[in-house]
Amino acid sequence: MVTTLDSVDVVTVGVGWTGGIIAAECAKQGLQVVGLERGRERGTEDFSIVHDEYRYAIRYELMQDLSRETITFRNSRDQRALPMRQMGSFLLGEHLGGAGTHWNGQTWRFLPYDFEIKTMTDEKYGPGKLPEEYTIQDWGITYDELEPYFDKFEKVAGISGEDANPFAGQRSSDYPTPPMKKTPLLQRFETATTNLGYSPFMLPSANLSEPYENPDGQQINACQYCGFCERFGCEYGAKTSPEITVVPAARETGNYNITFNANVVEVLKEGDRVTGVRYIDTVTFEEFIQPAEVVVLTSYVMNNAKLLMVSDIGEMYDPETGNGTLGKNYAYQILPGASGFFEEQMNTFMGAGALGMSIDDFNGDNFDHSDLDFIHGASFSMTQTGSRPIATNPVPPDTPSWGADFKRASIENYTRTLNVGGQGASMPHRDNYMTLDSTYRDIYGVPLLQLTYNFTDQDRALHSYLTERAAEIMQEMGAQTVVGGNPISDYDIVPYQTTHNTGGTIMGAEPETSVVNNYLQHWDYENLFVVGAGNFAHNGGYNPTGTVGALAYRCADGVIQYSQNGGSLV
């Protein structure tokens, strides 16, 4: 038996950064909002014993339970897709805060080039710069249009940074808090990159440099540089996350409630409108219908796309014909970089998730691509995130992978190794996409999402060129031995790479090429909004969270306008 609940103004599916932002903004405007979170409630008080590397970083305490729901994966359409049985390449968050709880805190704005990449690339290099199988397109919004929303997110999150990046888009105000400490390791990177003619700056960080009260009156504490950020919650309340900022701001209005253990399995629709969602209690398996005037999908990239697919909303992308948009333009990230082995010991075990220095000289179109067989690039960073002993075993080349020699080299180099890493932009390709699996289902009887993805010639060329640049920086830093990253071949879903998945529910200027408009409003159902990194038409050279936060504030404006006036927003 299905229980139908009282209708609300807005229901969000997922309570992480996007769900929390939508809830806070709508609730402040007097709208009644319900957030459906399939995980449990948690907060700062739950992380007092979080410095357990095995439990949280190896066994993924905070992540999605893949025994209940996972994805299937293949490199190409002629392969059989098989279920991902354990976390590997990326880490899907679950519970209150989602991936916004276990992130590192690196908070970037995508470059102006990113939002108009098709137009700007064609104007500078001609329309044939990339083969036609690369499905790059503009986002339907410009950096200048999105800038006020970037500014708002950074002020709510209290981001610590400095306006010293000569390649960044123009800012309407400075960062709300100063940059983090410039440690001796970062100074080494700063000196080397300056010597090479580049422009280093402190990485923008959601690990705050000082205590801060945000515009909603929420307190964020100062980072303790403990080195336990990524894959961990913060026991100090110093890593900005949804459960210490936007979620309490929404709750304080009295207009917001969260239902936990609520796994949404269908968006309900009638005619050209959606009417609410159907969810299953993950503990009792009871079914409920939550009616709403507006439905906002605020879950992770893959879950947003899957929910649209199983609800038969939108036209599925067909890689054979190129028709359809749902599931199209899935993109990941490329990781060029270099390691350096040094003679002296360094405090590599200390740090914070977003403690670092960066350069953007090789990001976006900040360097000439005329004679290169790829577009875009990567931000290069030297980060001091804290080297934890179980997962950190740096050894020079030709060291055995086990035994006494491995142990000796691992101990010797634990505090003598540094890395210069690049976050390389991934361009969408016609054969990289998401769809539903025809064989496997989750514990609720819903088909699994199927991911078809492989690295492309563009990716390999970008990786090769930028790995050489990273090695040059490491050499200038004085490493005794420099080891560049191995060339990439086929994508492997097993080793961790990044949780920076994008695409599948892309935004754009017209329904023929996108799933949602630039308010993240669905083209086919005007009271349905879909927001997250799935809206990205391609991936960039940064962590996605800052841009996701800006899009969430843009979406919140759209939901409020729609609730007040109705109709399409473009």
Features:
single chain, globular, 6-stranded antiparallel sheet, 22% helix, alpha/beta, FAD/NAD(P)-binding domain
Helix share bin = 10-25%
Number of helices: 11
CATH superfamily: FAD/NAD(P)-binding domain
Number of domains: 1
Can you count the beta strands? Answer: 20
Please give the radius of gyration in angstroms: 23 Å
What does this structure look like?
This protein has 570 residues and is α/β, with parallel strands linked by helices. It contains eleven helices and 20 strands. It has helices at 17-28, 53-58, 112-115, 117-125, 143-157, 184-195, 246-251, 301-310, 404-413, 457-476, 545-565, and strands spanning 2-4, 8-13, 33-37, 71-74, 82-83, 201-202, 212-213, 219-220, 256-260, 262-270, 273-281, 287-297, 337-341, 351-359, 378-385, 417-424, 433-441, 447-452, 481-484, 528-530. It starts with a strand and ends in a 5-residue tail after the last helix. The model has no long low-confidence stretch (mean pLDDT 96). Keywords: FAD, Flavoprotein, Oxidoreductase. Residues 218-329 form the Glucose-methanol-choline oxidoreductase N-terminal domain. This is GMC family oxidoreductase.
